[in-house]
Amino acid sequence: GQAFADSIPMLVISSVNKTNSLGLGLGRLHELKDQQALIAGVSAFSHTLLSADELPTVIARAFAVFSSARARPVHIEIPIDLMAHPTSFTCPTNIALPAKPGPDPETVDKIADLLVNAQQKAILIGGGCVNAQASLQRFVDFVGAPTCLTINAKGLLPPDHPMLLDGVQTVDEFREYIRTCDVVIAIGTELGDTDYDFYDVGPLETNGEFVRIDIDAQQLTSNCAASVALLSDAKLALNALNEVLSKREDLQTQGSSESVVKRINRALRKQFTEPSKQYDDLLKAITATYPNAIIVGDSTKPIYHANYVHRAPSPRHWFNSATGFGTLGYALPAAIGAKLGQPDLPVIAIAGDGGFQFTLNELIVAKQEGIAIAVIIWNNNGYKEIDDYMQRNEISPVGVDVLGPNVKMLANAMGANYAKAEMVSDVADLLVPLTKLQAPLLIEYITDIDA
User: Fold this and answer.
1) Do 302 and 331 form a contact (C-beta atoms < 8 A)?
2) How far apart are CA 243 and CA 220, in angstroms?
3) What are phi and psi of 214, to 5 degrees?
4) What distance lies between CA 45 and its chain's CA centroid?
5) Cβ atoms of residues 22 and 16 within 8 Å
6) Residue 290 and residue 83: Cα distance in Å, rounded?
7) What is the largest CA-CA distance in the chain?
8) What gap in Å lies between CA 212 and CA 177, rounded to an integer?
9) Those residues with Cβ within 8 angstroms of residue 389's Cβ, 6 or more apart along the chain or in another chain
10) Is the distance from CB of 373 to CB of 366 less than 8 angstroms?
């Protein structure tokens, strides 16, 4: 579900009961009423293999999705009686995978005209641009307009880029600025509420032209309908726009952009309370020790805050489940995967004590495989975000006081390393040994006050 929401390509192969018992409800071991239908809701497609000879076609279909469409998980289930079947197929070597869709030249020219003639502009960038970093930076430099990055797009602009807005899409000053823009251009973003409307104040209101570029046709009309829509892979669209804009002698960057960016970012920081400074301190402690760390987050207080203000050094160095599907327990297994994918980079997970308990068993996997990741447990003794929500809405809190394990004893039982941070700033020194370890490192911080 999280991979589906975050547009992650993932091939999932599972078994299922024997072909002659599917859908009969006979009470077989592990039987579901319809496993394929269950998983179809969180995948690009889910297919039940009924003949071993179908496999090359189904695999080709999966990789056609991965290569040319919005990336999402694909599920193939194989009945257990088929697993031992002889088969006649040979793996093909000449399958031509489809290319990603490219932009319509007339629409590209129209967008370029709008950008040239606009006095006030804004650029909204989503995770669909994650493979287009250089093209995006060139585009932003051409247009010279305030630019937002969603959670999954963090790192696509350098942290010190003058056009970079923090995660300000819910801030009043940003929304007012959007209302005054002649052109707003959104590329590779679904405009989801976890990025653009986290506090449920309503969708963005645009009075000028609203341009949307996306590889998924459905996204061109969802959340905020486009006045100009371009169905295209983000990188191909950006390259085409850059080619046209580079030849336009009448293109000028927006003179007020830097002052607008500073004003809106200041407004964002003014809304934070004093207790929220501890979240900033946590991120500063991490980046002071490992500036290039991959930071993986669960749905927990520090992550919610850092989604607004943290500036990742590169793409795919900041991702978490406080967006999209919102999966509790995501951080630990996702951090293990990140370390497997990038073994030379430090990988640090941040989880609350409640969310951590969903998947803490994965610690033993990390120990067994010698995967040295750090897991910072922000221990506020329960589901604090949900507790706060209940109290804000005058609901008597229920089910939010969660008894957690003794983390030190748990680490010892799991073969993991343990350290306790007495102050948030201690995290910087406690992380130092990470790159020399052969097992996970748990760092626990117990907080009495959360924002």
Assistant:
1) no
2) 23
3) -155, 150
4) 21
5) yes
6) 46
7) 72
8) 18
9) none
10) yes
Torsion 87-89-91-95 (CA) sign: negative
CB burial class (10 A; 0-12, 13-18, 19+) of residue 308? Answer: buried
Query: What is the distance between the alpha carbons of residues 45 and 66, in angstroms, rounded to a whole number?
Result: 12
Place of tokens 């969310």: 355
Give pLDDT tens digits along the chain (451 positions). 999 999 999 999 999 999 999 989 998 888 999 999 999 999 999 999 999 888 988 999 999 999 999 999 999 999 999 998 888 877 777 778 899 999 999 999 999 999 999 999 999 999 999 999 999 999 999 999 999 999 999 999 999 999 999 987 888 999 999 999 999 999 999 999 888 888 788 888 999 999 999 999 999 988 888 999 999 999 999 999 999 999 999 998 888 999 999 999 999 999 899 999 999 999 999 999 999 999 999 999 999 999 999 999 999 999 999 988 999 999 999 999 999 999 999 999 999 999 999 999 999 999 999 999 999 999 999 898 899 889 999 999 999 998 999 999 999 999 999 999 999 999 999 999 999 999 999 999 999 888 7
* Bridge partners for 294 per DSSP: 347
Residues 6+ apart with CB under 8 A from 295: 283, 286, 310, 312, 317, 318, 348, 349, 350
Per DSSP, the three-state class of 445 is: strand
Whether the model clears a pTM of 0.85, i.e. scores above it, the answer is yes
Q: DSSP readout, 377-419?
A: EEE-SS-HHHHHHHHHTT----S---PPP-HHHHHHHHT-EEE
DSSP state of 310: -
Three-point CA angle 159, 165, 167, nearest 5°: 100
